[in-house]
């Protein structure tokens, strides 16, 4: 560990969030972690760790609830250095089959909950002119070509877009921002409760966990990125995420080249250049 930091991690009931919190605490960092059930979170972490760990019962869709959680973190530890917006839910189904309540609930959890955390913590980071925000998207927030996952993908594309804009805004304050695209995350025997971070592989073939990424290595990647001199804006986690992103980029490049003439043809014609 290069230096002790104060971390705020959301969505720590299971999966990558829980693995990350355990690793941070083992390394001596101070950690505030949110879950819908703070008592269960305390049991999952397995130690009270007074003065080092703050479990918070938070409904991230409730703006006041989120602000109280951030205030509690600052009161307990004196500040916030790193925020990991990890909370989210997967919603599967054809777009025309999902109800309005289901769709809006998905955006409340995956997008507006994240925005509530950002709006609560950014004034503090702006004032201290330092900090690092990790927003966890998904490879489906970069490549949406998967049937039955359109609603989930839409929320994660929203996360990707707002994070890129946040990075442009926050740079002037010395705040770093990283957009994380995990692929499938297998369950790890060493960290009971870890689950898939990207749901499509789990739903397609839940028995083939060896295809997923290691949540311990993924958590370590986030810790390393927080310590790096130059933080990545785009961080793909997992070979599947890396390959899927590369294939998407190549496909877009091919279409750009194929349709270049039509794309640029709608521009306003410069009569002076034509006359010359």
TrEMBL record:
InterPro entries: NAD(P)-bd_dom_sf, Sc_DH/Rdtase_CS, SDR_fam, SDR_oxidoreductase. It holds the Pfam family adh_short. CDD domains: 17beta-HSD-like_SDR_c. PROSITE patterns: ADH_SHORT. It comes from the Bacteria. Keywords: Oxidoreductase. The keyword Cell inner membrane does not apply. Belongs to the short-chain dehydrogenases/reductases (SDR) family. This is SDR family NAD(P)-dependent oxidoreductase. It comes from Achromobacter seleniivolatilans. The lineage of its organism: Bacteria, Pseudomonadati, Pseudomonadota, Betaproteobacteria, Burkholderiales.
């Amino acid at each position: 560990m290069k230096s002790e930091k104060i971390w705020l991690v959301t969505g720590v009931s299971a999966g990558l969030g829980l693995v990350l919190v355990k690793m941070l605490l083992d390394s001596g960092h101070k950690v505030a972690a949110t879950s819908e059930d703070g008592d269960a979170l305390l049991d999952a972490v397995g130690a009270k760790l007074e003065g080092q760990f703050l479990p918070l019962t938070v409904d991230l869709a409730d703006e006041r609830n989120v602000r109280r959680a951030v205030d509690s973190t600052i009161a307990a530890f004196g500040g916030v250095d790193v925020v990991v917006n990890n909370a989210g839910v997967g919603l599967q189904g054809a777009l025309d089959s999902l109800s309005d309540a289901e769709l809006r609930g998905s955006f409340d959890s995956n997008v507006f909950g994240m925005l509530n955390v950002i709006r609560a913590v950014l004034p503090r980071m702006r004032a201290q002119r330092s900090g690092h925000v990790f927003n966890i998207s998904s490879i489906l927030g970069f490549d949406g070509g998967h049937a039955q996952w359109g609603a989930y993908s839409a929320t994660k594309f929203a996360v990707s877009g707002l994070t890129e804009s946040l990075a442009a805004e926050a740079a002037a304050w010395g705040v770093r921002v990283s957009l994380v695209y995990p692929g499938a995350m297998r369950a790890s025997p060493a960290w009971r409760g870890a689950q898939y971070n990207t749901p499509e592989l789990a739903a397609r073939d839940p028995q083939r966990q060896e295809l997923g990424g290691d949540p311990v290595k993924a958590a370590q990647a986030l810790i390393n990125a927080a310590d790096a001199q130059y933080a990545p804006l785009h961080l793909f986690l997992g070979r599947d995420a890396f390959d899927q992103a590369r294939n998407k980029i190549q496909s877009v490049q091919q279409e750009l080249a194929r349709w270049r003439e039509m794309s640029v043809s709608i521009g306003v014609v410069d009569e002076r250049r034509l006359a010359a």
